[in-house]
Each structure stands twice: as structure tokens, then as C-alpha cells.
Amino acid sequence: MNFKQLSEDYLDSFVQQAGKLISIPSVYTEDEGTPFGPSIQEALSHMLALGEKDGFVTKNIGGFAGHIEFGEGDEIIGVLGHLDVVPAGEGWTSPPFEPVVRNERLYGRGAQDDKGPVMAAYMAMKMLKDQGFIPRKKIRLILGTDEERDWQGMAHYFEKEPMPAAGFTPDASFPVIHAEKGLLDAYVTYPSESRRGGEAALLNVKGGGPLNMVPDEAEAEISGDIRAAFEAYVKDDQERAYLEEKEQSVRIVFKGRAAHASRPETGENALTDLLGFLKTLPLPASEQAAAEHLHASFKDTNGRGLGLESSDDVSGPLTSNLGSLEKTNEGWKAGLNLRYPVTADADQVIRELHTALERNEGKLEIYDHLASIHLEKEDPFVQTLLTVYNDATGEKAEALSIGGATYARALKTGVAFGAMFADSPDTAHQADEHVRLQDMVKAMEIYAESLYRLTK
């Protein structure tokens, strides 16, 4: 089969079907009738209906997840993707849930993470089926619904369904991701001083949200004369922050640049910038101490401020991200995202994090912890996928590691496999998220060839 030509032939169908899926605003919402909200339920139902219409076997696992499959035999080759997306945010050129093609790129929230790649994998399955290929193993496209939060959907799925013999997730980059760092989401709280005791009073601070994103905006409300200090702090870059006068206080807003927390160094954290300013003010002692400690802990994204700086040859350096912050009369609450090397001792990392934060009266609470994964580069499954990629691209690439957390962690034997290429724009979780159409064509070719070789 000429998968290169077939993938070109299926491009129009990909654009049509990916657009329909992207148009569903599948952001998590609380809902008594569905596990993760009606829009996520709609996206799952839509994909399963598409699979059924095209003649695949489908199954809905209580709205938590589902799958689309074809093939014979007892062994399963899994393809794990997710249908939920992060909130759209601001700054879009066109409406985020009204997908559009501009300059050979498909725009919309989820186009890259992960609806476009999921649809590329689905189209690969469809072209195999349309060509009359009968896999000797089951090819199962498993559709998750809660990847952007805490993976409850996939956990529930594997309580009900068997584990694939091996699988991949189209939710990262090519050539093959054979190792993923450990991931820790946590919150730390600090007490707040009730008496003022300073020339300026910090009324509230807030910024960020999802811990896997670098915050692009943060704000604080302050009473006291701070205009001169503010203007001196931002004098070299007037666009990064602004000040609004209120009746008895001022509101300051700092702007940053969003990025995925797996690579926090590529963004500009508005929270750490705001903290850098707050620590210069004559605040009450405990408030100033908290601002100074948080700024020192997270201004560097390599964990140096927490005493956790480390690296290994397999997966590279530890990274840290201050993903959220709120300060009220009750105290401070900061959310952090930490990604540690695959060879690091997780228990030791957590102990050292506790020590670093408690030194300044911070109380740490672990919200979520995903242990690192690591398949050897020589593993036959890794080598099969890598060979397909290199044959399709003419490269001599080797397997890589990442700081991201993908559904590969949900598998006993799993890797991340595309759909981004080395020169693809990384737009996940950002305004104007998009994929290049030719990237999706090449991904369809690679996925079809891979599934063919794994199941023929």
C-alpha cells in the first residue's frame, strides 16, 4: 500500500472531520449527569458515532472514555489520545472553537493538543480498513476525556478494559519518545499576617490556573503609595505591566507569555515577575517574606531556588513552574508543577521539596504524582516505530525523552509518537493553536505504516 499517496488523498476528509471535532468546546465543567461535563461527553459521543458509521467496533465506557477498533486476535495494539482541551483563553485571531484553515494550517483549540493528532490516527485506521487490510491483532483507538486534569477517565477505562500489549499516544512529537520525566503537581500554603505593619498593604494576589501552563497574567491589589516604585520597576518595558487607580487602592497587572509547563523556560511567568515587584515594597514582614521566598523559589525554572537542580543523560534537567497563586486575608496558596529526571529518586525529590518549602513556613500538599517512564531505546516496539519514522522521512533520528506527561504512562509498554515534527510550531495551550496540514498528512502516513507493520 502506498501510504504516502493515500494520506494525501485523505487530507480533505481529515480537515472536515478534525474541524467538526474541534468545534466542540470540550473543556471540563462540573456536571452531575456526566463525568467531566456535557461538552466532553459530546466530543466522545461524536467520535464513537463516527467510528460506528465507518464500520468500526465502538464502546463507550460510561462516559469516562471509549474506544474504536478493528482487527482479529487477542492481542491489542493501543493508540491513546484525548478529546478534552484546556480553556481557550484570550488573544485569538479567530474564534477558538470555530476551526479555520489559513495558510495551510488548521486553527482551533485542540488542533494540536490533541484532536488533530487523534483524527490523524483515526484516518490512518480508516485508510487501512478502506484498503481491505485485516489486522492479525486488534488495533484499538482509546479515547480519553480527562487528560488535561488528572486522568480519571483513563484510570476508569483500564479498570474495565484489558491493557494493550503495547501502544503509543499521538500527543507529543516524533521520532519516538521513549522516556518521560516524573511529574508532580502540588500546592503550598503560607500563613498571612493579620496586622499591617508596613507602609503598603497587600490586599490580594491572583494569577494562573492550570499548573501545566506558564501563567501569562497576574494581578495584585495594594493600598499605599506605590506608583513611583512600580514605574521604576517596569521602566525598561512599559508593556509588561500596567497600574489602575482605584478608590482606596491600586490594581497592578503583569503580563507574561504562556507556555507548556514541560518547557517553562520558553514562556515568561507573569507570577514570578509580579512577585519580583512585590518583594521590593514595604509590606508587612510576613507578606514580604512570602513574596521573597516564592520569587526566589521559582524565578529559575530549573529548580535551583528550591535546591532541586538536577539532570541526567536520559531525560535532561529538572524543571519547575509556579502555575497558580492566590493571596487573601487567610493566607497564600501557590500551585507548582515539577518535572524530575527519569533516573531521580522520586521519594528523595519530594522530601527535599518539603524541606525547602517548610524552611519558610510553607505547608506542602501533593495533588498529583505521575512516576517517570522509561523504555530502553533498543526495545523492539521502540525500534519498529523509529524505523517507520526514519523510512518515511529519510532521517536517521534516535528516540528522545521529554518532560511532558502523556498517556504513554497509562500503558504497561507505551511511548509517545508524534504528531509534531522537529520544525513544527509548538502551539499547544496557546492562543491561535494550530497544526500544519502537511504535518498531519505525514503523520497519517507514519501511523498507517506503523499500525500495518505491528499487526500484519
> Cα distance, first to last residue?
12 Å
Biggest sheet record: 8 strands, antiparallel
Overall average pLDDT: 94
How much strand content do the residues show? 25-35%
Structural class: alpha+beta
Radius of gyration: 24 Å
* Total helical segments: 11
Number of strands: 24
**Any idea what the shape is?**
elongated
Portion of residues within helices: 25-40%
The neighbouring-strand order within the major sheet is: 13-14-12-11-17-18-10-19
Poorly predicted runs = none
Structure at a glance:
This protein has 456 residues and is an alpha+beta fold.
3D architecture notes:
With 456 residues, the chain is α+β, with helices and mostly antiparallel strands. The chain is built from 11 helices and 24 strands. The strands form 6 sheets. Strands 13-14-12-11-17-18-10-19 form an 8-stranded antiparallel sheet, covered by helices on one side. A hairpin with a 4-residue loop joins β13 (241-245) and β14. α1 crosses α11 and α10 crosses α11. The longest helix has 19 residues, at 437-455. It is elongated, with a radius of gyration of 24 Å. The two termini are 12 Å apart. The model has no long low-confidence stretch (mean pLDDT 94).
